[in-house]
Design a protein that fits this description.
single chain; 434 Repressor (Amino-terminal Domain); Rossmann fold; 6-stranded mixed sheet; 12 helices
Length: 362
């Protein structure tokens, strides 16, 4: 076996595998790289030697030979976001099972940063990309990704103008069901707290919210839609709670907004306000009351995206696929609080025109 530095464990090489299997180094390389021009008995003998020695291919050496990394790239909005952190772990695990490693990065809220990150990964010659598009116009940027270019799967949000596979959450249904749950508790003044109104996910969740109100006969009040900005958390809920016809329930659009809502409710001491979070977040089930959530499955999203990408990397040819994943409502307590309104309070624009059962969206 090849010599190792003093005190370090010996690392088996291709030469060691070849010697044990009684074949040439070139034959071992062909087996490791998965080529089909090695006889089955010989390939089996090489695999036995690999297992006996515990040999692992060197991805850096291979990338220097082939000009392509044994890696896939993942670009998300924020690697610190709980949703994207869980999705990243799932992608990394699935990539590792396929013999690939993961390079991941956050692009933030900047189209320029997103472009720089994606270009950097393409220059690394990664095998494929999983992308959460944010502000970058991929088609206009001239990036050769998707069908006909570097294999790519867009996640959480589609990339307009790019023919590629996508894995999305059923945001409309999730927003609908979260709102319908609050309506079923008797609430008619439901505020929608969201971030970045231009985001695809928020627009779709807001669409579901409005559909549920309409189906329940409740007039949509635009003043109950509050954009969340990290710099104004201290006054986040003033617009919907400090009024003569206040909101009695809150629906937050994502985990970041949810954490801001929890802080705001704690700061002003209003535990009687019903609250549903679109998306789960750490400690949501440990709060008082525990937070009812419309739960996404970021792990399933990551695995689904990686499965599609690996099929593309393997050369499969099929029309652009769209995978739509469900949202599950998890009642825990905060979303089951009934509304409290002073007796004789005047009707507001949000008072229902008629009471009827809340149907499921078509």
């Amino acid at each position: 076996m090849s010599a190792a530095p003093s005190g370090a464990p010996a690392v088996p090489t291709l030469r060691d595998v070849a010697a044990l299997a009684g074949v040439s180094i070139k034959t071992v390389s062909r087996v490791v790289n998965g080529t089909s021009d090695v006889a089955a008995p010989t390939a089996a003998r090489v695999q036995q030697a690999i297992a006996a020695l515990g040999y692992r291919p060197n991805p850096l050496a291979r990338s220097l030979r082939t000009g392509r990394d044994d890696a896939i790239g993942l670009v998300v909005e924020s690697i610190g976001d709980p949703f994207f952190a869980e999705m990243t772990e799932a992608v990394a695990a699935a990539a590792s099972e396929a013999g690939l490693f993961l390079i991941h990065a956050g692009a933030g809220d900047s189209a320029d940063a997103e472009l720089a990150v994606v270009r950097g990964l393409l220059h690394r010659s990664v095998r494929g990309l999983i992308l959460v598009p944010c502000l970058l116009a991929y088609e206009a940027a001239g990036l050769s990704v998707g069908i006909g270019g570097v294999p790519a799967v867009f996640v959480d949000r589609p990339a307009a103008g790019v023919r590629a596979d996508t894995v999305l959450i059923d945001n409309v249904r999730g927003g609908y069901e979260a709102t319908a749950h609050l309506l079923a508790q008797g609430h008619r003044r439901i505020a929608f707290i969201g971030t970045a109104p231009e985001r695809f996910t928020l627009r779709k969740r807001l669409e579901g919210y409005r559909r549920a109100l309409e189906d329940a006969g409740v007039v949509f009040d635009p003043d109950l839609v509050v954009p969340h900005h990290r710099t104004s958390e201290a006054s986040l809920l003033d617009a919907v709670l400090a009024r003569t016809d206040p909101a009695t329930a809150l629906l937050s659009a994502n985990a970041v907004a949810s954490i801001a809502v929890v802080r705001a409710l704690h700061r002003i001491g209003r535990p009687e306000i019903a609250f549903v979070s679109f998306d789960d977040f750490p400690t949501a089930d440990a709060l008082t009351p525990p937070v009812t959530v419309a739960r996404q499955d970021p792990g399933l999203m990551g695995r689904s995206a990686t499965d599609l990408l690996l099929r593309r990397i393997a050369g499969e040819d099929f029309p652009p696929a769209e995978v739509l994943l469900p949202v599950t409502l998890v009642p825990r307590g905060s979303g089951e609080i009934a509304p409290t309104r002073p007796a004789g309070s005047p009707e507001s624009p949000g008072t229902p025109r008629r009471r009827r059962a809340v149907p499921t969206p078509a």
